[in-house]
Amino acid sequence: MPKKVKKRLSQKRIAVDLGVSQTLVSMVLNGRTEGIAKDSYDRIWSYALENGYSPRGMKLEAGMPGGMAMGMETVGYILRAPLRLANKSNFFSHVHQGLHDYLTENWAKTVFLGSEDLIQPKDLEQFRRVRKSMHGLVIMGEMDSKLVEKLADIFPKVVYLSASLPGVCHSVSGNDVEAAEQLVEHLVDYGHEHFAWLGGSPGTKRNLNRLNAVKSALAKRGLSLPDERQVITNSDGADWREGHGCAEKILALKTGPRPTAWICLNALMARGAINALLRNGLQVAKDVSVAAIDCTRVRESEWPTLTASAAQPEEMGRLAAKLILDDAESSYFQDIVVPATFFKGESTGPVSSVDGNSSQPLERVS
């Protein structure tokens, strides 16, 4: 006989079992405490959790003892626009994994609270009502500073991930300066002197910071990045399509030393650039070396593996969770910078002795 599936405990059932109104149960389970007796509040939550009730946005582990369930914390997270759960981005998927792992190890769970561009004033009011049942909030990606300030005023602890707003909340970011240094040093050691930058998400601090980091690393070695090589797309994305479009623009250049080393904003853009090179009959690593500021699975997902450097996003997620669950009281905010990890892939190689300083366009293989 198949095992009978236990039906989800409803708020109506809780109200009937406890002999209270469904309105009261609804208010309590949605985080309201004002005007509600503490005994009633605790009694409703205790009964709900001990009998397997799953609050909106939370999934309690099956078979977890009542004491464990009662002690379970929830941590919310919000994605920058235009990301959604279905396309939270390669990078933030890794971040969320690290966040989830650390919270699970400490009997806590994540709650998705929405995307930046979909949050309305009514949502902020709802956040105020449930904040006492949540331990904190992780903001994933650069957002409008006014929204970040509002969120920091609502939640007990807020961690801004891959961005920062000094004096407002904690932050965890990667060391992009170190990543750029490692990539430029690697490519210069291979003999490259002419570089190109393939960027995306123009106007964001992330794009600007990484571009400036690459410029600084080149300047230390007496090299520069001519303005015409700073190929920044006009779209709001930084993925495969933008990388492909940037590559096509570089390949269409007719004057000046041709760039033999391309550094990309992230691995998805690098994959798009590599596809453009292959479509034009060029050899990756021999004709053009491609590297990325990235440390996600995309660097090893297909041939050729990518030469890349960046902070490990899973570690960033774990550190964000640790900051939120830390019960130590402090009057200051922490800004954590995670070191970069270098990965040598198949996408980079020595500059061609014949083509290194040519001013002619790259020759397509027929």
UniProtKB/TrEMBL annotation:
Domain of life: Bacteria
Transmembrane found in the keyword field: no
Annotated ranges, domain Transcriptional regulator LacI/GalR-like sensor: 184-348
InterPro entries: HTH_LacI, LacI/GalR-like_sensor, Lambda_DNA-bd_dom_sf, Peripla_BP_I
Keywords: DNA-binding, Transcription, Transcription regulation
Keyword Isomerase (UniProt): no
Pfam family, one: Peripla_BP_3
Any GO molecular function: DNA-binding transcription factor activity
PANTHER family named in the record: HTH-TYPE TRANSCRIPTIONAL REGULATOR GALS (PTHR30146:SF109), LACI-RELATED TRANSCRIPTIONAL REPRESSOR (PTHR30146)
Protein name, UniProt field: LacI family DNA-binding transcriptional regulator
Originating species: Rubellicoccus peritrichatus
Lineage: Bacteria, Pseudomonadati, Verrucomicrobiota, Opitutia, Puniceicoccales
